[in-house]
Write a structure and sequence with these properties.
CATH class: Alpha Beta
Radius of gyration: 14 Å
Shape: globular
Number of domains: 1
CATH superfamily: HIT-like
CATH architecture: 2-Layer Sandwich
Largest sheet: 5 strands, antiparallel
Strand content: 15-25%
Helix content: 25-40%
Structural class: alpha+beta
Strand order of the largest sheet: 1-2-3-5-4
Number of strands: 5
CATH topology: HIT family, subunit A
Number of helices: 4
C-alpha cells in the first residue's frame, strides 16, 4: 500500500529533498539523512504506508525493530558515536519511520534532543557516497 504524496512511498523528488536511498532491509528501507550535523544520521522507513507502530502485526514489529537494530549496528561500526538517539515522529509525514541520530560527546547537541532538520551541514555527492559505502560495508 502506497500513498502518492508520501516521500517514503514514492521516493523521487519528494525523498531527494531530505534523504538518499542506501538499501532495502527485511521489511523497511534505509536512507541516509542529507542533513549531516550528526555524521551517520539515517532513517529506517517501514515498507508500507502505515502511520503507527500499532498498525502492523507483532511479527512485522519484530522484523521492523530487527531492521532498526541492523542499521544501528552499522552506524556504530561505521561512525563510532558515543550514543545513538532514536526518534519516531510522523506528525506530518504519516509513514512509520525511525530517525537514527548518532551523537558525539562535546559536539553539536550533546546532552539534548536532536533537531529534526537543522540545515547546518550538507555534503557533496562524493561525501554522501563515501558515507553510504561505510554503512553498507558495516551492514
Amino acid at each position: 500500500m502506497k500513498d502518492q504524496n508520501c516521500a517514503y512511498c514514492m521516493r523521487g523528488e519528494l525523498l531527494d529533498k531530505f534523504g538518499i536511498f542506501i538499501c532495502d532491509l527485511d521489511v523497511s528501507t534505509l536512507f541516509l539523512f542529507k542533513e549531516q550535523s550528526h555524521p551517520g544520521r539515517c532513517i529506517v522507513a517501514y515498507k508500507d504506508h502505515v502511520s503507527e507502530i500499532v498498525d502492523i502485526s507483532e511479527e512485522e514489529r519484530i522484523r521492523f525493530f530487527a531492521d532498526v537494530t541492523r542499521a544501528a549496528n552499522a552506524i556504530h561500526k561505521a561512525f563510532n558515536p558515543d550514543k545513538l538517539n532514536y526518534g519516531m515522529y510522523g506528525d506530518t509525514g504519516k509513514h512509520l519511520h525511525m530517525h537514527l541520530c548518532p551523537k558525539y560527546k562535546d559536539e553539536y547537541e550533546w546532552g539534548g534532543v536532536f533537531e529534526m532538520n537543522p540545515g547546518k551541514t550538507l555534503l557533496t555527492q562524493e561525501e554522501y557516497d563515501a558515507m553510504i559505502e561505510k554503512i553498507k560495508a558495516a551492514l
